[in-house]
């Protein structure tokens, strides 16, 4: 069973578009830079990241989204709790992010 991991970001108002673009590029790069320990094989099956474009008006201040797909819950668990590349990127976000939401669904 696969898993879809959705992250919504709300950037602080003082963060400029250049920095937001840089962060989003770093998030997109996770697809290629996150690898399993030992085998060094990539384990993210799909990753999409972009600015919101909804017309519905229910964003509640969230402006960007990252949708990551994994083949298994175990892969997501490694990503969320142990992958050094992902953890380092996440540790650098607080100065720029006013809000963050994470939801996962098994598919």
Question: Can I get a quick summary?
Answer:
This protein has 107 residues and is α+β, with helices and mostly antiparallel strands.
Question: How would you characterize this protein structure?
Answer:
This protein is α+β, with helices and mostly antiparallel strands and 107 residues long. It is 32% helix and 32% strand. The protein is built from 3 helices and 4 strands. The longest helix has 17 residues, at 17-33. The termini are close together.
List the helices and strands and how they pair.
Blueprint: E1 3-11, H1 17-33, E2 44-51, E3 64-70, H2 73-81, H3 84-91, E4 97-106
Antiparallel strand pairs: 1-3, 1-4, 2-3
Q: Biggest β-sheet: count, sense, barrel?
A: 4 strands, antiparallel
Strand content: 25-35%
Shape summary: globular
Helix content: 25-40%
**Number of H- or I-type helical stretches:** 3
Compute the number of strand runs: 4
Write down the overall mean pLDDT: 97
Q: Give me the secondary-structure category.
A: alpha+beta
What value does the Rg take, in angstroms? 14 Å
Order of helices and strands: EHEEHHE
Order of strands side by side in the largest beta sheet?
A: 2-3-1-4
Stretches where pLDDT falls below 50 for ≥5 residues?
Answer: none
Distance between the termini: 6 Å
Subunit structure: Homodimer.
Domain Stress-response A/B barrel: 3-105
Pfam families: Dabb
Protein name: Stress-response A/B barrel domain-containing protein
